[in-house]
Write a structure and sequence with these properties.
By secondary structure, the chain is an alpha/beta fold. The chain is built from 14 helices and 9 strands. Strand 7 and strand 8 form a beta hairpin. The chain binds nicotinamide-adenine-dinucleotide (NAD) and fe (ii) ion. Fe (ii) ion binds next to helix 5.
Length: 359
């Protein structure tokens, strides 16, 4: 069976296109006493973004904090807040949810949009195709590029037991607003770590056993753009990084990520590391799987003058290390993509453990 996958319905790209958000949302607004929910990364409380938000009287503005990666408890709490405030709307639901921020904020927007129309807790839906009802309309404005969260059919959440996405066709955004000016102010290191998420998506997709021409076409273009951004200088770097992220996301939509992502999930779960930096830390130790990719990644590190944290396992308990291995092993499709159907033989717990101990 071939996957029949859902894509983002509407995409606008271009410098300054954020200013079209008012127009775009006006087509969704159902009544003057109904409203749209804006979930905005609280890093933008400083600066002029607030003045640029196309807020109407009945809209809800919620500053979200992503110091920690999105947790199911946070999603449930946000969804409850939005539901309570939406009780005044004619349809008891907002006309839409708009996420403005990096991958974490985009994931929060997806998850909240889903939880407004699906009962229970977001933990109930961590997995594949467990969502029953369509989400409310949801849109994203990325302010960091690399995760591919703007195009993916998942929202990655950390629950009490596991870090696992809510993967479903209903998760996909209805609209994304790709304005390269929105990523221009990102701190240098964060921009690198998030950008490397895209680079690693490409390497894992292009070397994986799930690869097909669809994924390869997007993956190769994304990889070329990553090289232009991180190994050379030139015009339109933000535009290129934004498109690399989009294409990298499209590439893995029809294939899968691999060893680095599986390991990185374990790092995030136990150490609370963010996805981008977790990927970078893990990738540096995966030369035996991704030789040329890892060597090129080190050239990017040098060129961008990034120094990775080391020796992370020093203070960890045996239990914590075992938990990391558990989290990594849950991600079966990632291992299968990387190593083929016989991956369990090649990747016993002990080998994963040894890799972690080097980090
Ligand atoms: N859904 C998916 O398909 C998918 C894929 C990969 C990763 N993710 C998730 O994405 C998250 C990582 O996303 P990310 O790397 O984009 O970073 P992020 O959203 O976690 O943000 C990282 C930091 O950068 C700040 N920030 C964001 N934009 C900024 C800007 N323009 N200027 C200054 N600071 C800014 C944030 O406040 C935060 O402190 C993780 O939670 C990960 O699980 C999701
Ligand atoms: Fe990723």
């Amino acid at each position: 069976m071939f996957r029949n996958f859902k894509q983002v319905t509407m995409v606008v790209f271009g410098r300054g296109c954020f200013n079209q958000l008012e127009d775009i949302l006006s087509q969704r607004r159902s009544a003057p006493d109904s409203g749209v929910v804006f979930l905005v990364d609280d890093v933008f409380k400083a600066g002029d973004l607030y003045q640029r938000l196309p807020l109407h009287d009945a809209d809800q503005l919620i500053w979200v904090n992503v110091d920690d990666e999105p947790k199911t408890t946070y999603v449930d709490q946000l969804a409850a807040t939005v539901k309570a405030q939406s009780a005044q709307y004619p349809q008891q639901l907002p006309d839409g949810v708009v996420g403005i921020g990096g991958g974490a904020t985009m994931d929060l927007a997806k998850a909240v949009a889903l939880m407004l129309t699906n009962p229970g807790s977001s933990t109930d839906y961590q997995g594949w195709d467990l969502i029953k009802n369509p989400a409310v309309y949801h849109a994203a404005v990325p302010t960091l590029s690399g995760t591919g969260a703007e195009v993916s059919r998942t929202t990655v959440l950390t629950g009490p037991e596991k870090k696992l996405g809510i993967n479903s066709d209903f998760t996909v955004f209805d609209q994304v607003v790709l304005d390269p000016e929105m990523i221009a102010g990102a701190p240098r290191e964060q921009r690198f770590y998030t950008g490397m998420d895209c680079y690693i998506h490409c390497i894992e997709s292009l070397t994986g056993t799930y690869l097909n021409s669809f994924s390869q076409s997007y993956g190769e273009k994304a990889l070329e753009l990553c090289r232009e951004v991180f190994l050379s200088q030139g015009p339109d770097q933000d535009d290129k990084l934004m498109m690399a992220s989009y294409f990298g996301g499209m590439s893995i939509a029809y294939s899968q990520v691999g060893v680095c992502h599986a390991m990185s999930y374990g790092l995030s779960f136990v150490l609370g590391l963010h996805h981008g930096i977790g990927n970078c830390i893990a990738f540096d130790y995966l030369e035996e799987f991704y030789g040329p990719g890892v060597r090129e990644f080190r050239r990017m590190l040098d060129r961008q003058e990034i120094v990775l944290p080391r020796n992370l396992m020093a203070d960890l308990s045996e239990e914590q290390i075992e938990k990391m291995v558990d989290v990594a092993l849950v991600l079966e499709p990632l291992w299968e993509n990387a190593l083929g159907s016989d991956w369990r033989r090649e990747m016993p717990r002990e080998r994963i453990r040894e890799l972690y101990l080097r980090m």
